[in-house]
Amino acid sequence: MSYQAIIFDCDGVLVDSDPISLEILRKMLSDLGWTLSYNECKTLFMGKSAEAEIDLIQKKLGQPLDREWIQAYIVRRNRALGQHLVAVPGIYDCLTAVHKIWPHHIACASAADKTKIILQLDKVGLTHFFNGQLFSGTDTERNKPYPDVYLAAAQALNVDIKDCAIIEDSITGVTAGFSSGATVYAYCPEGEDPEPLLQAGAQHIFHHMQHLPLLLQDKTSNKS
């Protein structure tokens, strides 16, 4: 049995946005008195929506944050993404190959809001690969690490989630993908430790985007 659909996360998988977004968040939290190193900020917030983590931020600060602060973060983040965002190396060729095999069953499912997803994919020229199949965890009852956004994507594509391959890069995302029942491929650039991703449930680890299409086909063949 072959995979019926391929579902990609966005941040860190399609676009190299995490360093930009996390640095903006880190600076704004520092202004409020919560000093984090970049790696500490990455551990806490990578793969998550900062808006969804507002309770954690408020608890740590010991004070409420109003909607104006959240909007200021979104504006600063989106401005920086619009100026500096680049695609993940090798992703254009990867998507070209995947799209040839699954032209109507390829989707993007992210913890980010839909506006951010579209902004990023438009910025780096990847939007057309997904035929409008873009899904946000902010539109589901529960965001990642829960599986809701992946289940919603599979339902929209009219496929069983167990017949899907999910491409992720964070512990939060891998946890969501694994708990959905799909097969999870975790992108782990060389030099980074894959063990946390494996412990979160990733069944396959790969280090270069250009290798992914063949891995998907090889595993598809093995399922036949």
Short description:
The chain folds into two domains: 5-16 and 86-223, HAD superfamily/HAD-like (Rossmann fold, 3-Layer(aba) Sandwich), CATH 3.40.50.1000; 18-84, Putative phosphatase, domain 2 (DNA polymerase, domain 1, Orthogonal Bundle). Helix content is 48%, strand content 11%. The protein is built from ten helices and six strands.
CATH superfamily of the largest domain, please?
A: HAD superfamily/HAD-like
Number of domains: 2
* CATH T-level topology of the largest domain: Rossmann fold
> What structural category characterises the helix and strand content?
alpha/beta
Overall 3D form: globular
Instruction: Give average pLDDT, whole number.
Output: 93
- Runs in which pLDDT lies below 50 for 5 or more consecutive residues are none
Which terms would index this structure?
224 residues, Rossmann fold, DNA polymerase, domain 1, six-stranded parallel beta sheet, 6 strands
Describe this structure in words.
The protein has 224 residues and is α/β, with parallel strands linked by helices. The protein folds into two domains: 5-16 and 86-223, HAD superfamily/HAD-like (Rossmann fold, 3-Layer(aba) Sandwich); 18-84, Orthogonal Bundle (DNA polymerase, domain 1). Helix content is 48%, strand content 11%. The protein is built from ten helices and six strands. A six-stranded parallel β-sheet has the order 3-2-1-4-5-6, sandwiched between helices. Helix 1 packs across helix 2 (38-45) and helix 1 (18-31) runs antiparallel to helix 4 (67-84). The longest helix is centred in the middle third of the chain and has 18 residues, at 67-84. The mean pLDDT is 93.
